[in-house]
């Protein structure tokens, strides 16, 4: 379904007198099966988001190959071949308010993928209504603008927009971190529902290990632009092999213990 082989990505840094490249992704290689949920974890700056952007073509890789099905997405292709490859992979970003055009109505935002796909205009309304209802919203919201909706509602719109392209692979980049805790669970449940109904492969980028433990088939741990461990979820949490993975898992356990302790601290009324 998805094969990433020896992918490297760097960004220029420094000033006029001293220039250098910062390696953001270093020799990234992994494969995914169809309908699998792969969660990518690691500290801020480890390359998680950059990898997601490279997978959908928002960032060009320096070297390596990204293959989705029979389509190859790398630095050497462009034009219609690039568009065909990218259409198979869609991404949902962390901040829904930043990823939706504030000057366009929800209907116009959801129509954009259909225009790119050159879908018949007479079918736009039905397709868009079906999409917005599939994420738990209503036809009346199509006339709204992003600023008139809550963060959770805008994230639902972002999900609806991504599935209009009928992708094989969906990347969710920290999609709950900008939302209220009360909304986060609903968005995750919606993503898993959409994934199942559309038989998609899901790449879930997150720092919430407790959530990752519940939804992932496999977990990829990244540090300093490299994959330090990639294994089945149970093996990652029960028998982590890399020292950095053990640190992440231990920290998750400490947070869980503190949370439980705080619950016990609540006064008991006689």
TrEMBL record:
Gene3D superfamilies named in the record: P-loop containing nucleotide triphosphate hydrolases
Record SMART domains: AAA
CDD domains from the UniProt entry: ABC_NikE_OppD_transporters (cd03257)
Keyword Hydrolase on entry: no
Molecular function (Gene Ontology), one example: ATP hydrolysis activity
PROSITE patterns (UniProt xref): ABC_TRANSPORTER_2
Domain ABC transporter: 2-249
InterPro entries: AAA+_ATPase (IPR003593), ABC_transp_ATP-bind (IPR050319), ABC_transporter-like_ATP-bd (IPR003439), P-loop_NTPase (IPR027417)
Source taxon at top rank: Archaea
Keywords: ATP-binding, Nucleotide-binding, Transport
Keyword Nucleotide-binding in record: yes
Pfam family, one: ABC_tran
One GO biological process term: transmembrane transport
Similarity-based family: Belongs to the ABC transporter superfamily.
Name the UniProt record assigns to this protein: ABC transporter related protein
Organism, scientific name: Methanosalsum zhilinae (strain DSM 4017 / NBRC 107636 / OCM 62 / WeN5)
């Amino acid at each position: 379904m998805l094969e990433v082989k020896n992918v490297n990505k760097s960004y220029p840094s420094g000033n006029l007198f001293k220039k250098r490249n910062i390696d953001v992704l270093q020799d990234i290689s992994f494969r995914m099966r169809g309908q699998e949920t792969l969660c990518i974890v690691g500290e801020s700056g480890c390359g998680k988001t950059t990898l997601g952007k490279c997978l959908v073509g928002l960032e060009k890789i320096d070297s390596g190959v990204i293959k989705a099905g029979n389509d190859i997405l790398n630095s050497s292709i462009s034009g219609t071949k690039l568009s065909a490859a990218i259409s198979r992979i869609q991404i949902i970003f962390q901040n829904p308010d930043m990823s939706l055009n504030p000057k366009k109505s929800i209907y116009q935002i959801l129509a954009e993928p259909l225009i790119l796909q050159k879908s018949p205009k007479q079918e736009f309304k039905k397709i868009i209504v079906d999409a917005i209802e599939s994420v738990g919203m209503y036809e009346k919201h199509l006339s709204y603008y992003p600023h008139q909706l809550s963060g959770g509602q805008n994230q639902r719109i972002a999900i609806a927009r991504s599935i209009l392209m009928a992708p094989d692979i969906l990347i969710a980049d920290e999609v709950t971190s900008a939302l209220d805790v009360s909304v986060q669970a609903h968005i995750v449940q919606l993503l898993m529902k959409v994934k199942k109904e559309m038989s998609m492969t899901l790449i879930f980028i997150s720092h919430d290990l407790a959530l990752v433990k519940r939804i992932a088939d496999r977990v990829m741990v990244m540090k300093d632009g490299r994959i330090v461990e990639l294994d089945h979820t149970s093996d990652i949490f029960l028998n982590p092999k890399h020292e950095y993975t053990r640190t992440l898992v231990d920290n998750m356990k400490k947070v869980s213990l503190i949370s439980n302790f705080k619950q016990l601290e609540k006064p008991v009324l006689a």
